[in-house]
Each structure stands twice: as structure tokens, then as C-alpha cells.
Amino acid sequence: MADIEATKSLTGLLNGIAQKAYYNNAEITEELLKTELYPDLSQEDFNALHERMKGLLKSIAMADMDHGQLEAFLTAQMKKQGGGGMSEAQAAALSRFWKSQRARVRERLVAQSRWETGLRGLTWRVDLQTSSSRGQEAAQSGPVALLELELGCPSQDSEYVCLECDEPTVNQVLKKMADIQRSIDAVVHRS
Prior knowledge:
- The chain is an alpha+beta fold.
- It folds into two domains: 2-113, no CATH class; 118-190, Nuclear Transport Factor 2, Chain: A.
- It has helices at 2-21, 30-37, 43-63, 67-79, 88-113, 167-190, and strands spanning 118-128, 143-152, 159-166.
- Strands 1-2-3 form a three-stranded antiparallel β-sheet.
- A hairpin with a 6-residue loop joins β2 and β3.
- α1 packs across α3 (43-63), α3 crosses α5 and α4 packs across α5.
- The mean pLDDT is 86.
């Protein structure tokens, strides 16, 4: 029963560390984690455990470890001598935590590392123009592609850019995209 409680507390600690470090949750503090999860542990022992788990989680996250890498890393940590190692229960809790949170943590790390605007979304449709505001003949007008690009950084609201392309422009864009794809394929197949 004590092992189950220790595993729950460690899982809670790992979740708290992730909330603070990767999800910017300011409500999570070391004091809160200690009082809620480890009330009987001395402050010194809690600080040591917190820093060790924080360091391990940072190492795992920065390397974006897959299952095999994680198992090798945790095995090496369990074999460490001199109090720097971890128990099997701690390794199992860390492994379970990482398996469930890997994608979310990676997504947050990628989002935090971007400082420039990125493409968030794209919508498009094809319309038929029947006349032009410039007085052109209806016979000259044809189908147009209307593209709406949603641009933004993770920390700000989106901006929208609208583009209108006629059929030759769409064909030119498609040709350029095909050229880019061929270039990527050539590089990938060379490696």
C-alpha cells in the first residue's frame, strides 16, 4: 500500500513539474507540491527529490526519448551508485508519465521555441466571378481560388491574409509545390 501511495505522489510531482515547466501554470509551486504530495518529507529531502525529478524530466524531454531510449536511460539511472540513482518504482512512474505526456510536452517545447509567425490554418474555396468591379467583360472572368491563411505566434492572436488567384496562378503555385516536393525527395533519397 505504501508503494502505491509513493507512486501516486511521484506521479503527482512529475505532473506538477510538467505543469510549471512546460505549460506555464503559475499556480503550481514547490511549496504546493510539497504540502500536497510529501507533507511528511523534510524540506531538504523534498528539494533533493524535486530537483532530481526536474532534471531527469528535462533530460528526457530535451532528447524527446522514445520507448527504447527511455528504458536504457532509466536502467542507467537505477544502476547509479552513491544515492544518485532511482528505485524501480520511481523508474516505472517516470516511464508511465513520459509515455502518456510525451506528445504534449514535445508540442509545448516546439511552441515555446518559435518566435516568428507560423501558419496556423488554411481555408480555401473556388468562386466564379461573373463581373468585375473594374468594368471588365464577364466573358474575361473565370474561376478564382480564394485562400485564407491564418498566421500567428503561440502567444498572440491570429492574423489573416486573404489571397485571390486565377487559374494560371493556381497552376503556377502547384508547379512550384511539385518542384519543392521533388527537391525534398531528392535530398531524402540521397541520405
